[in-house]
Amino acid sequence: MTDTAGTAPSRSELARMVDHTLLKTEATPADVSALLVDAQALGVYSVCVSPNMLPIEGERGEVKICTVIGFPSGKHHSGIKAIEAKRAVVDGAEELDMVIDIGALKAGRADLVEQDIAAVREAAPNPIILKVIIESAALTDDEIVAACEAAVNADADYVKTSTGFHPAGGASVEAVKLMRKTVGDALGVKASGGIRDAETALAMVRAGASRLGLSGTAAVLDGLETGGAA
């Protein structure tokens, strides 16, 4: 994975870092179809939807399909997460964003977190991309490091800041910097949760994010295009 810190991406380059996301509980198949149309118009990397929204019907061009596993709490048995991952791949998912058991990490059981990630990795081996959601806003710095190390050891592809559903909040520049420092170039870093404007998005990229999870993608990209992030 390439460290993107210090770069200033163009509008199209930033778009290609975006997982265009719709995870609202009230989302309908029509909403997902509209998301896919928007994704192609915006030039984003992928769409990220709930697993029961798969498979997505319609022409998607180069847009990848991403879904979530054990979402949003992570409090699912590893075997259930593995089954969910297998089903998602059968239904067309190319990337999986799984939520770890935050409670296990806070109890000092990073070994269980690593096993959890490994179970999903085994169920969905490469070339499926596996991103590990650590809910960084709810963690101490030491816990963030432990979660990232578990993801590296379990052969994940990315660590991701947040679900966007936790009351502690979403991505922060400080968390992204620490995550990038911990994983180095071995894994990607996805910043997600609360990124609503171009300035915040670019700050995450400068901190080391190589992927962004956005629901308000058009507003972020329009802000960059008009110089709103200057």
From TrEMBL:
Keywords: Cytoplasm, Lyase, Schiff base. Pathway: Carbohydrate degradation; 2-deoxy-D-ribose 1-phosphate degradation; D-glyceraldehyde 3-phosphate and acetaldehyde from 2-deoxy-alpha-D-ribose 1-phosphate: step 2/2. GO terms for molecular function: deoxyribose-phosphate aldolase activity. Its main location: cytoplasm. It is found in: Cytoplasm. Its EC number is 4.1.2.4. GO terms for biological process: 2-deoxyribose 1-phosphate catabolic process; carbohydrate catabolic process; deoxyribonucleotide catabolic process. The active site is at residues 97, 160, 190. The keyword Lyase applies. It is an enzyme of class 4 (lyase). One of its GO terms (cellular component) is cytoplasm. The keyword Cytoplasm applies. Catalyzes a reversible aldol reaction between acetaldehyde and D-glyceraldehyde 3-phosphate to generate 2-deoxy-D-ribose 5-phosphate. HAMAP family: DeoC_type1. Belongs to the DeoC/FbaB aldolase family. DeoC type 1 subfamily. This is Deoxyribose-phosphate aldolase. It comes from Pseudoclavibacter chungangensis. The gene is deoC.
